């Protein structure tokens, strides 16, 4: 678990090892608003998302 600016993040250790550094950002762009998740080493998978390194809204 990581705490950043009063927000707690729970990240699976296996995923963290596979992805490396992870960046979570909130984008407020009208109909495209939501969270974007990026990683140093993209991996495939996820539902409705092409994996770490892609923007998932």
Question: Can you describe this structure in just a few lines?
Answer:
It contains 1 helix and 4 strands. With 57 residues, the chain is mainly beta.
Describe the structure.
The structure is a single chain. By secondary structure, the protein is mainly β. The chain has one domain (1-57). The protein has one helix at 13-19; strands spanning 2-4, 7-9, 22-27, 34-39. The strands form two sheets. A two-stranded antiparallel sheet has the order 1-2. Strands 3-4 form a two-stranded antiparallel ribbon. The chain is flat, with a radius of gyration of 12 Å.
Give me the strand/helix succession: EEHEE
Give the overall pLDDT as a whole number: 77
The largest β sheet comes out as: 2 strands, antiparallel
Low-confidence stretches: 48-52
**Major beta sheet, strand line-up:** 1-2
- How far is it from the N-terminal to the C-terminal residue, by CA? 23 Å
Number of helices: 1
| Helix amount | 10-25%
Number of domain units: 1
Broad shape: flat
What structural class results from the helix and strand content? mainly beta
Radius of gyration: 12 Å
**Number of β-strand runs:** 4
Fold topology:
Elements lengths: L1 E3 L2 E3 L3 H7 L2 E6 L6 E6 L18
Antiparallel strand pairs: 1-2, 3-4
Throw out a few tags for this protein.
single chain, mainly beta, two-stranded antiparallel ribbon, 12% helix, flat
